[in-house]
Amino acid sequence: MIRLLGVHKGVAALLATLVFGAALVVSALPRMVESSLDAAARSIIGAAPPGTASLTVQYSRGFDLRPMRTTADVAGADTAWRALLPTALRMAADPAPLFDFSASSPILINNQAHRYLTLKWVSGADRHVRYVEGGPPGPGSGTRFEVAVPAVAASEMSIRTGDTLRLGDLTAKVTGLFEPARPADRFWALEPELTYVIHHRVPLATEDDLIVTALTDGDRLAGAELPMIFRWLVTPAQGRVGAGNAADVLAATEEFDRRLGRQDLELTLSTGFDRILREYLDRLAVTRALITVFLSGLAVVCLGTTALAVLLFAGRVRGDLLLMRARGASLARAVLTCGGAVALVAVPAAAAGQLAAGFVPGAPTAFARLGPAALAVGTVAIACAAAAARRSTGRRSANALRRIVLEILVLVLAVASVQLLRTGGLGTGGPGTGGPGAGGPGAGDAFLASAPVLLALAAALALLRAGPALIHLAFRAAARRAAAVPFLGLAAARAVPGAALPVLTLLPAVALAAYGMVTAGGLEEAQRQAAWERTGAEIRVERAQGIAPETLEQIARAPGVRAVVPAAVGTTVAEVGFGGRPATVVAVDLDAYRRLVAGSPLHLPPPGTGALVSPDLSAMRSFDIGWPARTTVTPAGTVDAMPGVRAGDGALIVLRAAPEQVNTLLIAGDPGAVRPLLPSGAHMTTVAGALAEITGMPLTKALTTALRVAAAALAAYALAAVAIALTGGAARRAEDLGLLRALGLTRRQAGLVTVLEAAPLLVLTAVAGLAAGLAMPALLRPGIDLSAYAGGRYGALTATALLPVLPCAVAGALAAGVAAVALVGAYLGGSRGHAG
């Protein structure tokens, strides 16, 4: 075996390189993605508001004072609820306790309209506050409470230390004013009402209600005859939830809710943690399934290219094996010799590739662990089959029948997978799908993820059926001409042996590489679109207190600023129906705005006159609004959305006129020129910043990086497959050209004959692969929606984003490059073969 490898060391080195590269990519890519998925979990949980990400156990007590009469009772309940946490949730939760209780509703202060106070106690509050005046509240007595008030609230509501506030039948003496000791602590994100005055306006009211939350003694408050709300907070630790345990933590959260429902008290679990995990797991499933799409395609292409290299090796050692047989060796011995020689190359190369992949951060998945081993085993099996086939007498009719059955099976599977993918979607987490802990999609998603690969294989099989007919038509046309070179070249093309494997390797490689490039490019286009829609202009400046005319003038005249459009964006109540309809109002000169964003991907309402309203208000002939001024709105058209404006569940009203009072500036120019001129309280956003936020998400970065790596690997293996296919026929081609040399064939003609032999099937394969790759985004879009990775809502990817111009051109250049490199190699090889 070693002697065989020494004689054919060039082919052995090629085989080792192919197996090493395939094992490296197949093992490293899943690890890289898993690392990004864990980072995404940490980022999503860390970016979520702590109050939303926490699990809040809540109990509302009426005037029945039997339960929870002291802070010790509340602390004991916290221990009891934490004992109910399932293991996965307990491991992910922060062990530090946090619980609080407060009066169920604010109490009017001194009978003053619109001034309210809420009594509250929070565990550990004394460690997080700093008293700027006075001291902490004491226990009080009777109907008298002692309270400490946030300093910012005391200033806004004119409360001073020593004041006694009448709260109905109760009184509250202010003992001190406090502020956060460390404002960045997570504590203040969970107890934000202790840092500001709550402004609340009921519908159709003309003035806000001001509500201040004050700290008081816990035992005194718990024993008071007041309706109370008790809360126990379980906060997830940011680094304890990842791709591997997210599904288990979600299931544990749901189980915790069920366990709380079986307690004696009427407890409720309030949290957004389950929603955060579901959204993450949905996107995680799609990411993993998409990676499986390209990994499966890469595995097919790598195995096909490796098979070509193995067949090339088997062809080179055919004489040695025949000599062994002539000296009495059995067929099994010959097969063992060929397979063993390939194993000596493939197994160490696969192990080295997997070892090199270990330097890539991330947990190894099942695919990463088993892929290299499967690749090595497949390579050895192909070698053994190739050696055994040299001595077998196949039955052509039976082989043809098996081929037809196999082709029909591939076609049926391709159609079924595409249909199921379009109707069910990829990574939906349905039955059969694998959880995150499985390291990849389950049986359901694995079949759907194979749809692109099956499509590419079906296209390759169709080409193998239709290609010979097309080549025959070209041959008949050449036969009518007097020139000998086209006739000889196309005659050789008709008789090219072993074309199936190169086509089945090259076409999926080109198709999936084109699909990856177009998908990554489409994501970039959609991300740019989403960034513009979030911002509404190249630069957006907002200030709730309004922007003075002189500031507007300074910004408009600043060097680097090309144009400025003032606008006003705010909320009001559209006076329609009973109680009115909450609405967001945008007042802007739409014509000037349209000129400002010309050339951007934004789509603004068409030119016209009159106000635009959302469809829910379009049936009204007119209605009144109170902001930005008392105005009667007469709808002249409808509008669904405006860039940079979030109307939420309310209505949207667009006034086509520059506002008198400006609180928003839409700017085209250099952010560096605008930033120094901004007044205090102004907030500036840019398209570049929004785009960086969208593209910086770990899941998005993982997906786009994986798409590009897979596309590059597929392109490389496509070139390798072409080179091996041409090399494999070099000996036969040299014999044919040697016979033609005696008839006067020139060196240039020999090269052209070789090109015409290789060109028809090669060009057809490249074109068919490119067409299949460009068709996949539109064909598979209903089942593979990537809008979430582009910062948009489901279905937000437009048709133009599916086939972006530049990535399509790059994919076309890839197909053309593969064909060109192959044809140039064929020409040079044919010329040298003739010369030799």
From TrEMBL:
The ABC3 transporter permease C-terminal domain, residue ranges: 710-817
Matching Pfam families: FtsX
Membrane topology of this protein: Multi-pass membrane protein
InterPro entries in UniProt: ABC3_permease_C
Subcellular location field: Cell membrane
Keywords annotated in UniProt: Cell membrane, Membrane, Transmembrane, Transmembrane helix
GO CC annotations on file: plasma membrane
Transmembrane segments: 289-313, 334-360, 366-388, 400-421, 446-466, 503-523, 709-731, 751-780, 801-828
Protein name: ABC3 transporter permease C-terminal domain-containing protein
Organism: Microbispora rosea
Taxon lineage: Bacteria, Bacillati, Actinomycetota, Actinomycetes, Streptosporangiales
